[in-house]
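Consortium newsletter contribution from the modelling node. Members have asked for a concrete example of what our holo predictions look like. Here is one, prepared for the flavin mononucleotide complex that several groups have been discussing at recent meetings.
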Amino acid sequence: MKIGIVVYSQTGNTYEVAQKLEEALSKKGNSVKIERIHVADEKQRDLNKIQMLSIPDLSTYDALVFGSPVHAFSLSHPMTAFMSQIPTLQDKKITCFVTKGLPLNGTGGNQAIGVMKKICESKGGDVCGSGIIVWKKDREKQISKISEEFSKMF
Ligand SMILES: Cc1cc2nc3c(=O)[nH]c(=O)nc-3n(C[C@H](O)[C@H](O)[C@H](O)COP(=O)(O)O)c2cc1C
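And here is the predicted structure:
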């Protein structure tokens, strides 16, 4: 299966997870590419003013993994802006993940995943899995768990 891992990462954590997923999904015989989203101004808080430096073409992928950090108890604005402008996700198998710093429930993980799912479903995508990585000591275990889960979805 041809899989695109579409990731936004401000300080590198989410990108690190994307690289590990790329390795795990490739080992299962998939053709996997990371598409990293970059924005002109990381500090721009107005969703309508966010400028993408490049917009990857997702139409050639059978399946997509979206990854983003949690910002301000929800999905980061660059990822929200990017996902919102995707023309269609019809017939794509999709999984989503977020990374976050705060270990407690109610600090944005489920909220961010909820936003990702809503956008994907509004564009016809089939969201078949999701995961939240809390950036603490045991994160390698969490990353292995979602790698295994996502590998089974595709
Ligand atoms: C502006 C900003 C807001 C953040 N807000 C939250 C938050 O609401 N909840 C949380 O758990 N972590 C929050 N974090 C922590 C990040 O989600 C966490 O460090 C994440 O792994 C960073 O991913 P990245 O290195 O890919 O950018 C925030 C970080 C930044 C810089």
